């Protein structure tokens, strides 16, 4: 069973979204309180946890959980002399039933869960009365490009979802179109003061280096080269499609845009 994420990819995501992550956290209103308790679900090796929460003196304690044993081992080693942090190898279903948190953070986590609405309903009971949940999710329906005469983008998405993603233990339940659904999940779970924020990134006025970096971060991870249970035929097909789309990103007149959605809600 492989429950290991690409830690370098997660680090790049954290750095790339840092300003907007900070913006959403401040907009949530929770930082007006003192002695805050934080739960970061899907904390990986603690890198993204630290850059989001470490700067605030009114955050008293941060608990990070993840199912990636290698990442948690790294986090425990890196933070072994820092009493503000506690990292645990733990599934979201195994949280302490009595412990309450002022901030529950799920960054690129909810889309991978088998029953996201049920999870959100349960997490509501883990919030303090002043608590806020913060959710960051992708949605591939908010990605598009032009010109793409061969429809490469959607061919890549379809091949990944149907032939690659479902065959990997860590992504077998992943919903790449969850972004538009989260509001209803929160509303049906009786969260209050639900707010939506969105961060848009595109290729306008980007250098070649910046465009290729965007391609690598938002599309190229769908390669099947290092994934299990994938035939050589599928690997070759995906590599061909990715190579062709990458060539489009090299063109100055090519346009691509993506959107990351953020939700905040109170108990």
What does this molecule look like?
By secondary structure, this protein is an alpha/beta fold. The protein is 36% helix and 24% strand. Strands 1, 2, 3, 4, 5, 6, 7 and 8 form an eight-stranded mixed sheet that branches. The two termini are 35 Å apart. The mean pLDDT is 93.
Draw up the topology in text.
Elements: H1 7-16, H2 18-27, E1 36-41, H3 47-53, E2 59-66, H4 69-78, E3 85-89, E4 101-107, H5 116-124, E5 127-138, E6 144-146, H6 152-164, H7 182-188, E7 192-202, H8 208-218, H9 232-249, E8 255-266
Parallel strand pairs: 1-2, 1-4, 2-3, 4-5
Antiparallel strand pairs: 5-8, 6-8, 7-8
Helix pairs in contact: 5-7, 6-9
- The total beta strand count reads 8
Shape: globular
Q: What assembly state would you assign to the polypeptide chains in this entry?
A: single chain
N-end to C-end Cα span: 35 Å
Would you list the SSEs in sequence order as H and E?
Answer: HHEHEHEEHEEHHEHHE
Fill in the keyword field for this structure.
267 residues; alpha/beta; 8-stranded mixed β-sheet; 9 helices; 24% strand
Quick synopsis:
By secondary structure, this protein is α/β, with parallel strands linked by helices. It has helices at 7-16, 18-27, 47-53, 69-78, 116-124, 152-164, 182-188, 208-218, 232-249, and strands at 36-41, 59-66, 85-89, 101-107, 127-138, 144-146, 192-202, 255-266.
